[in-house]
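Dear colleagues,

For the upcoming journal club I promised to circulate an example of a predicted protein-ligand complex. I picked one with nickel (II) ion because it came up in last month's discussion. The inputs are reproduced below in full, followed by the predicted structure.
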Amino acid sequence: MTEEPVSLPAALASFTEQWSPRIVTTVNDYDVRVTHVEGEHVWHVHDHTDEFFLVLDGELRIFLREPEGERTVTLAKGAVFTVPRGVEHKPYAPVPTQILLLEPSGTSTVGDRHDEIPDHVDATTGHALR
Ligand code: NI
């Protein structure tokens, strides 16, 4: 896909939309995506794929509905976490935050099933960098 290196800070500086991932490169059949996030996303589930999160800056909390019950994981800058396939989750950023996601190309940001999508959440399979 990309034939030149991509600067993540430059990629993030190229847009301001929240919860609206840009695809910075691909690895085999996976996208590497980055986005700004703040506030709540939406409860959703990916039935067929895990979802990898890396916090580039800020803080991300992920609410999880696991078989054992609900819990929240908190990811500081530099932390990684993988939501297993089939686990309902809702990301939340208490402060302006930037994250990197790794997931199969074509994966929707709102999963295969989701609650009503709020206006500030972009339901997308990722946008190309401009
Ligand atoms: Ni997800």
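Two points we might discuss: Residues 8-115 form a domain with the Jelly Rolls fold (CATH 2.60.120.10). The chain has one domain: 8-115.

See you all on Thursday,
B. R.
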